[in-house]
Inverse folding.
């Protein structure tokens, strides 16, 4: 059996708020039995969803910042919930995160040189200072930064774009197996966004996979080999980007795709298409706990859709959670 790089197996996350006095305990199901697999071959997978769809929770679970309520997260076929501290240390080298704005992750009193030197020392990346200096220069140049202009500066002296690229240089230095990018370009302008995404593609050529979490479908189309559509904590469709874009099967995905102004999203990827813009944040309220989460808004809804929730079913080229697809197959 092929070893998987990362696997989420029926992961559910329920957040509970304790009751107080007359206020009853409240629980929110942020994720509902989601499964997602990334293989060792380098690939970019986009996890697309509106705010509140659960995509940031996925990110936190993968990074070990939260624990799943049920289900398993496996890295290289090993269950992360069973790990010891040394396993986490290795994981944090092999799986890296890219945030929206990396500023908060840097110590403002440390020059950027020190950030890179610390990484090199912590993970024993080189065997001499000379090698370290070479690696630092190589990493900065690989992401379009000039070492002489960047080194010696403090994080607050870098522009937003430079900080993003500096974070990429840190990643280049470590050469992880997997990058988890949580809306990394939402705070930078279109030109820098293009450059940033090109670097992610270059990283893929170096063997670095990427789970790209976004609400911006155009970016997902531009960069991803495959897309996973998350809606109210459930995966409703996933497959190769080209198939899902050109022939969406789930009514939710169809609605998203039909909102794209240009039929070739690669040509206009700099124009954001946000899931929120089609009003999908109102989902999941009318069908009850048991029904399809898209029931309220689905023009194809049938009686059974209100009573029963469709599970994710494999078709010839993807997975879809919709009774229509089930009946057609
Ligand atoms: Fe629409 Fe029913 Fe499919 Fe849900 S299961 S998306 S309500 S047709």
């Amino acid at each position: 059996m092929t070893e998987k790089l990362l696997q989420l197996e029926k992961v559910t996350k329920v957040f509970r708020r304790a009751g107080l006095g007359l206020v009853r305990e409240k629980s929110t199901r942020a994720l509902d039995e989601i499964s997602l697999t990334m293989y060792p071959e380098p690939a970019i997978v986009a996890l697309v969803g509106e705010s509140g769809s659960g995509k940031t929770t996925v990110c936190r679970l993968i990074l070990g910042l939260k624990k799943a309520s049920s289900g398993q997260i496996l890295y290289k076929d090993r269950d992360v919930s069973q790990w010891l501290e040394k396993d986490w240390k290795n994981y944090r080298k092999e799986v890296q995160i890219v945030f929206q704005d990396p500023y908060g992750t840097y110590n403002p009193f440390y020059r950027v040189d020190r950030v890179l030197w610390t990484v090199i020392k912590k993970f024993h990346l080189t065997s001499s200072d000379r090698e370290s200096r070479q690696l630092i220069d190589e990493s900065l140049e690989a992401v379009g930064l000039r070492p002489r202009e960047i080194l010696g500066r403090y994080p607050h002296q870098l522009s937003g774009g430079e900080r993003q690229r500096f974070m990429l240089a840190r990643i280049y230095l470590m050469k992880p197996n997997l990058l988890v990018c949580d809306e990394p370009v939402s705070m930078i302008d279109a030109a820098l966004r293009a450059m940033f995404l090109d670097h992610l593609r270059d990283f893929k050529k170096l063997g670095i996979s990427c789970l790209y979490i976004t609400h911006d479908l155009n970016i997902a189309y531009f960069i991803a080999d495959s897309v996973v559509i998350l809606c109210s904590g459930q995966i409703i469709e996933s497959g190769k980007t080209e198939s899902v874009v050109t022939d969406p099967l789930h009514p939710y995905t169809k609605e998203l795709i039909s909102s794209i102004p240009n039929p070739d999203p690669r040509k206009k990827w700099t124009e954001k298409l946000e899931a929120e813009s089609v009003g999908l944040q109102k989902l999941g309220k009318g069908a009850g706990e048991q029904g399809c989460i898209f029931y309220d808004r689905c023009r194809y809804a049938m009686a059974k859709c209100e009573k029963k929730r469709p599970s994710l079913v494999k078709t010839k080229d993807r997975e879809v959670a919709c009774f229509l697809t089930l009946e057609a197959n």
The pocket of iron/sulfur cluster is lined by residues 251, 292, 294-295, 298, 300-302, 305, 310, 322-324 (CB under 6 Å).
